[in-house]
């Protein structure tokens, strides 16, 4: 890929995550600019074009045909991630796609195949890898000062996507299997399966899970067809044992979004949100607090734009996203079959 002074990015899907993260972070970059927006609800795209500049495209195909566009950020419902990513790669665009990568392992294969034949690259928007706390935790584990990692526990629990998606109601696509895929297992689980593997520097090889629809109801008052809670056990290739709780029903409390990593020489506690916290407590008593404030930005659009500008490689590769998809699909399979799944 050749170098670029100013990278032009189109944004597809103009809901909550674009409003909170991608559009403001893109607009703040000196080496990137927003070419325009597309959403199948045109009003959503118009609102953002008015605020951040750029044109409103009539379709994502029109955006992909625009030769001035170097890359696209895909922030639509999960079921459309793979078809749009594949189409964008066919048009030689670089792709930054929100998580989860897709809704099936077959779709993940299609994305990797399209990327091999493309001049563009695929980046997964696995923002938790960019958190200062998680990066530091990875560095500490890699350095060996905590000794061997033995086990972990991890939680990602909030009160449900109907409280933050642009459609603030129980009819949101997040609560429908046809659009979401695996519900909280992939929506929340993909973050943690990816970032745990990133921090530990190891693949997961074995998973088991219980999952259920404990509380969420649709617009007609019936239980939704996705899982709203999952409790998982995981094992890595060197034998690290961990638990993972994923929940859409953390009512009344603060979001829980963090990890406790138990090592030979002490404990590492990481929290991603609301504040980025990293605390290392050694067995002998010393406690080091590395940070205790919000991450300044997600760092994701910046990494995407910088990689395109430099003519470089994807900062979060498709293979890593595919690996995380394999783990969440195994969690879902274990919950369905009652069996431990080997990866
Ligand atoms: N990385 C993170 O921390 C994080 C956080 C929130 C959401 N997300 C991901 O971002 C994506 C969007 O989430 P959101 O909360 O913004 O959802 P949202 O419901 O608030 O917004 C989605 C927008 O996309 C549009 N849309 C949906 N499908 C489309 C399609 N096929 N073509 C064109 N427009 C389409 C909708 O009209 C809506 O404006 C999801 O995949 C979600 O998992 C990631």
Describe it.
A 9-stranded mixed beta sheet has the order 14-13-12-11-7-10-9-8-15. Helix 5 links the parallel strand 5 (94-97) and strand 6 (122-124). It is α/β, with parallel strands linked by helices and 343 residues long. The mean pLDDT is 97. 33% of the residues lie in helices and 26% in strands. Nicotinamide-adenine-dinucleotide (NAD) binds at residues 12-18, 39-41, 44, 75-78, 80, 98-99, 125, 127, 165-167, 187.
How would you describe the shape? globular
Which molecules are bound in this entry? nicotinamide-adenine-dinucleotide
What is the C-alpha radius of gyration, as a whole number of Å? Answer: 20 Å
The helix content is: 25-40%
Beta-strand residue percentage? 25-35%
Q: What class do helices, strands and sheet pairing give?
A: alpha/beta
Number of helices: 11
The chain-level mean pLDDT equals 97
pLDDT under 50 segments (min length 5)? Answer: none
Strand order of the largest sheet: 14-13-12-11-7-10-9-8-15
- Report the sheet with the most strands, covering strand number, pairing sense and barrel closure: 9 strands, mixed
Counting DSSP E segments of at least 2 residues, the number of strands comes to: 15
What is the CA-CA span between the terminal residues?
A: 34 Å
The ordered H/E elements are EHEHEHEHEHEHEHHHEEEEEEEHHE
